[in-house]
Design brief:
Structural class: mainly alpha
Number of strands: 0
Largest sheet: none
CATH superfamily: Farnesyl Diphosphate Synthase
Number of helices: 15
């Protein structure tokens, strides 16, 4: 679908780390060295996408060591590679067998010591799915994260991986994708939960498991995930439809109800803006608790929300056609 992307409601001030240029260089070299690309054209696209800028925008907090920011950038880059290679933009056009094998492979990296190191059915999974790269990311992250942070990261990564099965299974069933089911799955499939946890790790966030279990913190995190999901869907809809018409996104589901592309995009933007306002309301309730850990969590989360929005609007990964700014 082709429709200009409206300016979305996001009153959080923009920020970017001074490490952006260094992180872009690192991401390009790291992806090339680890063969995280399907072909030379895809590698060039990844380099132009500026995953380092994405990291610098979503984790712009001063005082973070460059090595930690490089690790954070590598996680982001690996996520995009895995999504493109085996999921939404795979040559198999989101084929269920490709998706299922990739999910089993990546989930296998989270097994306890002594468990299987790869999907045992597939002898090629270590190399094809780049599992040594994932093992390296996990090992290095475990060194710098608090134990409960690392456990939370692994849980969120597993949930994100399994969320890819929903669309593949719906495709096999022959039934149309329903908006309610898509929305329920989107909270996990947008991957904000594991990546916000990574931002907490590298930013030294003081929030504890008890802090994050606070009802307002849970609500704030869920609303942030949905806001990022709708933001991503709106900016990537045109790109993803051209790459793989089978990819499901919010504007496309609205258009499938008989709406023209511009109307569908406007309705999707309204859903985003309503979600953003609800998120900001929840954030105020979190800040009103006066609890240091919750306040620190809100700091990290709001940077992710704004940084994700800014990157979506500027990245060459999507080249989203932007509408004129609102008066």
């Amino acid at each position: 679908m082709t429709a200009p992307v409206p300016e979305l409601y996001c009153p959080i001030p923009s920020a970017v780390s001074d490490w952006a240029d260094a992180l872009n260089e690192h991401a390009a070299a790291w992806m090339a060295d680890n063969h995280l690309y399907a072909n030379s054209a895809k590698l060039a696209q990844y380099q132009a996408s500026k995953f380092g800028t994405f990291a610098a925008r979503t984790c712009p907090h001063p005082g973070i060591a460059l090595d930690l920011m490089k690790l954070y950038t590598e996680w982001l880059a690996f996520g995009f590679f895995y999504d493109d290679q085996f999921m939404d933009e795979s040559a198999a056009a989101n084929g269920p067998a490709t998706v299922a094998e990739a999910v089993i492979a990546i989930v296998s990296t989270f097994t306890p010591p002594g468990g299987t190191g790869g999907a045992p059915v597939y002898a090629h999974t270590d190399t094809e799915h780049r599992l040594p790269v994932m093992h390296s990311l996990l090992e290095r992250t475990a060194v710098v994260a608090r134990p409960e942070q690392f456990d939370r990261l692994c849980t969120h990564m597993v949930l994100w991986s399994y969320s890819y099965l929903y669309e593949a299974l719906t495709l096999v069933s022959g039934r149309p994708m329903r908006l309610a089911g898509f929305c329920a799955n989107r909270m996990y499939n947008i991957a904000s939960l594991p990546y916000v946890t990574l931002a907490q790790i590298v930013a030294g966030c003081s929030a504890t498991a008890e802090d994050l279990a606070h009802p307002d913190a849970v609500l704030m995190g869920c609303l942030a995930a949905y806001q990022m999901g709708w933001c991503n869907d709106i900016h990537s809809a045109d790109h993803e439809t051209r790459v793989n018409p089978g990819i499901t996104h919010l504007p496309g589901l609205i258009a499938a109800q008989g709406k023209d592309p511009r109307t569908a995009m406007a309705e999707a933007a309204h859903i985003h803006d309503t979600t953003m306002r609800s998120y900001l309301d929840a954030e105020q309730r979190v800040l009103a608790t006066g609890r240091a850990g919750l306040i620190d969590y809100a700091r990290v989360l709001r940077a992710w929300v704004r940084g994700h929005y800014d990157w979506c609007r500027a990245t060459r990964r999507y080249n989203a056609p932007l509408a004129h700014r609102r008066p």
